[in-house]
Amino acid sequence: MTPQQWIGKAFSRLIHGRNSLVGRLIRLASAWFIFSLVITAIALTMFFHEAALQRFQVNVSQISNNLLAGTNLEADGSVTPPISDARANFTYSGLYWQVSEVVSGQVVPRASSRSLWHVNLTVPEAILATLQKKPDDVAYYNETGPQRQYLRIAARFSVISGRNFLFIAAEDRGPMDKDVRTFGLVTALALLILAIGSLLSIFFQVRIGLRPLFDLTGEIAGIQRGEQQRIVKTYPAEITPVARQINAFLDDAQEMMERQRMHVGNLAHALKTPLSVLLTAAGDADGALPETVRKQTETMRGQVDHHLRRARAAARAQTLGERTPVEPVLDEMAVMLEQVFQEKGVIIDWRAPEGLSFRGERQDFQEIAGNLLENACIWCKRRIRITAEFIEDEQVLSLSIEDDGPGLDESRFEEVLKRGARLDESVPGTGLGLSIVDELVRAYGGQLKFERAALGGLKVKIRLPGMMENTVG
Amino acid sequence: MRILLAEDDPDLSRQLKASLSDAGYVVDHAPDGEEAHFLGDTEPYDCIILDLGLPKIDGVSVLERWRREGKATPVLILTARGAWSDKVAGFDAGADDYLTKPFHTEELLARLRALVRRAAGHAQPLLVCGGLRLDPRAARASVNGEPLRLTSLEYRLLHYLMLHQNRVISRTELVEHLYDQDFDRDSNTIEVFMGRLRKKIGNDRIETVRGLGYRLKPLHDEVGSL
């Protein structure tokens, strides 16, 4: 994996993967937000409940006070009920009072509100005991009353004229509880709406806030696909350094590759001129020595070429984002080779759709087209046809080069691609052309195929990574 | 036959000079770009062998200077790098042929013979149309002094149009002159080449006459009609 691919992968993982930045931000914000909303809802409801109960109790204790103040002890020992709230006169109205006397541990009811009808309110033993220890204190508790009403009860134990009285005032707390429930429900609903709204806004904020990161990922992917060479968009201050670093990195890679190319070229120059000297010195003289020199020089050149190509291929793996328009390269090659083979009157007819590009280095495409075309020029009688096409589904550039020469026997297709092999020893040429092309095409993940040409000769068909640019008009 | 050999390697120069002299050429040698440029500029050579990796001034620059100054001497370039981009650069500068080092002496001699023969072809009148010039002998064309790089089919098309300036030429007539008999006569072809030719010589030089064909117009016609 090249460093560029690595950066691309890392970024997409950062944003989309399990360890996603967006996911993390949203999860964290949501969890915290929901937690605080639930706490708020609980606190609000509890507070409201407490306040309602307090207000409610004030009422009950008021009745209890009135009871104490209004009760008359008659001379015959009976108790005259106090004048009280009108509600106490309607059966099971929800408001009740009762005056009882504690005689030798037994609670004996003396008087009660009409609303109680025949029901007696009782005080649990434990509460009675507490009350007796602290006379005149009011104790509040809940108890199920008549018609299963849930009552809030205020009970008080007082000693009046040496007699032990138990005053009980009670009110149905149902309506209050209902209010509290309604309040809780409304609060929960309101907070739920708030939560949904806020979560949506968090989601969008994160998505929009992090959009530059997605853009950057998109640009890096574009570089990988060869659609662009550098990061070009403007980014917020936090990401600008990253974008700048990536650009610097790409520039470095490019520069390094250029330098490698230059070294490779210099090496070629340094080695090949001495080889020329040797070859020329041997001349076409007969004899064992000139023959050995010629042969060995040929081998050495093959070796030099082979290793230079490997070095170039290694340098090439570092470049990304290059693209080469097909038309101008085919044009310059056709013009040049027709001139070189002018004696023979070679006619090169090339067709390529406008906007078709090879996703790769110009030099490499020149190398591929140049070698194939030169071969065709050597072998053709006169005519060469080049057809470049774009296969949209596969994003492939298909290039075929046909000639009207003698062609090649199918059994020899394999052999021709071997390094240094020549189609015919009698025809001048390095013999390396086709193997160079094959190596280059493979380096780009392409394919090379031989077929019989409609013109009669050989048809070389190659597939390379391509792209189509939309042309205006 | 007098030729200039511009090569910096002393051994190779000595050997080549000997081989060329044996083949009957009179050889001048320039070991660097500066001297090569000077000699090529002042002496009437029949052909020049130019190494691209010359010291002082590189081969491509020397060649560009000659061509800019109007020197039409055929030039064969020698390149050690063997990369097609170098060859293309050489041709853009005005080279006529290339050889990649190391090469066999016989091959160099064969290429030289061909170049000299080509340059000595029988003279034909220069065709001129506005800023367009076409030299049928050298098979070269230029527009406003800038050399045109044409493929042979484009060249044939332009040649025919220039021979029949100001006349409307039908597509059928063009197809017949463009191709030998056995070529596929696809009428779209003319449009493809016309498009490319227009790109190279300027869009408004060739007029499409609807239903009839094409016509090459001299440039001043355009100026006059403005």
SSE pattern of chain A: HHEEEEHEEEHHHHEHEEHEEHHEE
Provide a count of the helices of chain A.
11
Runs of chain A with pLDDT <50, length 5+?
A: 424-430
Largest interface, by Cβ-Cβ below 8 angstroms: which chains and how many residues each? Answer: A-B, 46 and 40 residues
Runs of chain B in which pLDDT lies below 50 for 5 or more consecutive residues are: 221-226
Work out the number of β strands of chain B. Answer: 11
Which shape of chain B, going by the Cα principal axes? Answer: elongated
**N-C termini distance of chain B:** 52 Å
Helix content of chain B: 40-55%
- The Rg value of chain A, from CA coordinates, equals 50 Å
Secondary-structure-derived class of chain A: alpha+beta
Largest sheet of chain B: 5 strands, parallel
Summarize the structure.
The complex is a heterodimer of chains A (473) and B (226). Chain A is α+β, with helices and mostly antiparallel strands.
What does this entry look like structurally?
With 473 residues, chain A is α+β, with helices and mostly antiparallel strands. Among the domains of chain A are: 73-172, 2-Layer Sandwich (Beta-Lactamase); 240-317; 324-468, Histidine kinase-like ATPase, C-terminal domain (Heat Shock Protein 90, 2-Layer Sandwich). Chain A is built from 11 helices and 14 strands. Chain A has helices at 3-16, 21-70, 125-133, 174-209, 211-225, 240-282, 288-316, 326-340, 362-379, 413-416, 433-443, and strands at residues 72-73, 79-80, 95-103, 106-112, 138-144, 150-160, 163-172, 324-325, 347-351, 356-358, 383-391, 396-403, 447-452, 458-468. In chain A, the strands form 3 sheets. In chain A, strands 8, 9, 10, 11, 12, 13 and 14 form a 7-stranded mixed sheet that branches. A 5-stranded antiparallel sheet of chain A has the order 4-3-7-6-5. A two-stranded antiparallel sheet of chain A has the order 1-2. With 226 residues, chain B is an alpha/beta fold. Chain B contains 9 helices and 11 strands. In chain B, helix 2 (33-42) runs parallel beside helix 3. The radius of gyration of chain B is 21 Å and the shape is elongated. The termini of chain B are far apart. At the A-B interface, helix 6, helix 7, helix 8, strand 9 and helix 9 of A face helix 1, helix 4, strand 5 and helix 5 of B.
